[in-house]
Amino acid sequence: MLTLTRQEALGFVERRLNIGEAEKLLAEDRVAFLDQLIVAFHNSVPFQTMTNMAVSPEKRRVPSLDEIKQDVYSGRGGMCIALNGYFHALLAALGYDCYLTEGRMWDADPNTHAVIIVRNLLGTDDSRLVEVGVGYPTLGAVPLDFDLESPTSVELVWRGRVVRVEGERDETRGTRCPVFLRQRKQIDPEEVARLGFGLRENPDQWNTVYRFKLEPQSFVELYEHIDANVFRNASHGLNRTLRLMQWRNNRAVIVLNDLLVRETGEGVCLPVRLESDAEIADTILREFPVFDRDLVEKAIEQWRRLPGK
């Protein structure tokens, strides 16, 4: 189980997230402070596949709990189990009522994503989706008390929403358990294609990025399933791409394989093609100096070995 003490949590908030007087802010407004934490985390800790890609496929595995703590605290970041797993532990240490549940990405097998749910935030049995580990921004907790769908928001070059649908009937309860779909739709399909994003998407419709239920799941179970279904699955997309994504002053900086993308305005991005492996490495080290050159070059080497690269 990934846990933090309250002092560890407050230290991370102050030193990595650069938020002072955390206990005062928490006592004044738990809802506003939660959103402040989410934004600060997006701006401080990247989603990245580099540490995974730097290892040969047969040796890849989910990071240990100590590695997750070190990678997040140092600002190296990681993939969903590291980012959402750590953020869940952070929220729990700060006194939020929260749990993890599985997310099913695209049409892949279940247990390929870890999702955070915060509940009873207002003392009224409410639930909110908290997401800091999917790479693209969700700059605030999303209330799930709607009947059909949440309000839409701009998420880089997409519009985003969460939709509620009826799930399978639970015979023990005599009810249907609702399923929530995290969806997005391209704002400008030509822009999305130019950036090399949205390869799995139909540009003319809402696409489901992942689905989840409000059913708590243990961190250990998620950890084991994501290890098998993502890290040790050589065909999984995150084992076939160089990806670093971070928000700085709420603007995206992304390296996607041989492309550097900067968000210059809401929904407006500037792509720059990186022409050589040396340029890819230099760009990563300049934009994400927390990494060392040896790791970056090993990740690029493994990426180049993939068919078609």
Give a description of the structure:
- The structure is a single chain.
- The protein is an alpha+beta fold and 309 residues long.
- The protein has 10 helices and 13 strands.
- The strands form 2 sheets. The protein has an 8-stranded antiparallel β-sheet. A 5-stranded antiparallel β-sheet has the order 1-10-11-12-13, with helices on both faces.
- Helix 1 packs across helix 6 (80-93).
- The chain starts with 5 loop residues before the first helix and ends in a 5-residue tail after the last helix.
- The model has no long low-confidence stretch (mean pLDDT 92).
Total number of beta strands = 13
Read across the widest sheet, the strand sequence of neighbours is 5-4-3-2-9-8-7-6
The mean pLDDT is 92
State the secondary-structure class.
alpha+beta
Distance between the termini: 38 Å
Count up the helices.
10
Task: Detail the poorly predicted runs.
Answer: none
* Net shape: globular
The helical percent reads: 25-40%
Radius of gyration: 19 Å
Strand percentage: 25-35%
Q: Characterize the largest beta sheet: strand count, sense, and whether it forms a barrel.
A: 8 strands, antiparallel
Q: Tell me the series of helices and strands, N- to C-terminal.
A: HHHEHHHEEEEEEEHEHEEEEHH
